[in-house]
Design goal:
9 helices, 5-stranded mixed beta sheet, elongated, alpha+beta
């Protein structure tokens, strides 16, 4: 049975229009980009097959477009649409930070770090520099490491904060393993950064750890 023959309340496009995108499953969302399925399968069944064989969703979407086009059911058009949608999502998350608005929602910064760092195969440590009104000045990836660690130099973070004339800094790094639980080393470097930045009157507002799921805020746990 083709999707067009399904009851209207079960078709992904009609469900989205009637109840919003959040009610759709990963497979249904992906099916909207596929448009049609492979031989013998509708678009939703093809999407389920893609997720089962090449997922989960995050892992599938982290593939470059040149790899996506090689997967069953994903031709050049669908692969480009997926890559473009992911980039649009990233730019949307960044828009509030980059248009000079004050950062009033701590979780917005966490989502921004997640979008920028989650896809890296090795550990990356980055900083978001803010002015006195907590408006974004710059975002920089400062240190890169291996799959299980990156060496962080507080002096370099201080140097970049002074270069941007920053009044506050939010830092973050990813855990390629997928676990966002902060390590003892994460807590130690947070303490070192806070002390080093305090010497030049720059506040460390938060340190996010990015893994699978929601970013973990060290400030929310009382460790900043």
């Amino acid at each position: 049975m083709h999707i067009r023959d399904w009851p209207s309340g079960e078709r992904p496009r009609e469900k989205l229009l009637a109840r919003g995108a959040a009610v759709l499953s990963d497979a249904e969302l992906l099916a909207l980009f596929l448009g049609s399925g492979v031989r013998g399968l509708d678009a939703v069944a093809t999407a389920r097959q893609l997720l089962a064989g090449h997922g989960p969703l995050r892992r599938l979407l982290e593939r470059p477009a040149t790899e996506l086009v090689k997967l069953p059911g994903l031709g050049p058009a669908s692969a480009c649409q997926l890559a473009a949608a992911l980039e649009l999502c990233g730019r949307y998350l960044a828009a509030g930070l980059e248009r000079g608005e004050a950062l009033t929602d701590p979780q917005a910064a966490g989502r921004y770090f997640a979008q920028r760092l989650r896809g890296h195969a090795s550990e990356v440590f980055a900083a978001l520099f803010l002015d006195t009104r907590h408006r974004a000045l710059a975002f920089e990836e400062l240190f890169r490491g291996t799959v299980d660690g990156a060496e962080v130099h507080p002096r370099e973070v201080v140097r970049r904060a002074l270069a941007h004339n920053a009044a506050a800094v939010i830092v973050g790094h990813n855990h390629p393993s997928g676990s966002a639980e902060p390590s003892a080393a994460d807590r130690a470097v947070t303490s070192q950064l806070k002390q080093a930045l305090r010497l030049v009157d720059v506040r460390l507002l938060d340190h996010f750890v990015i893994g699978d799921g929601a970013p973990v805020s060290l400030a929310a746990r009382g460790w900043v």
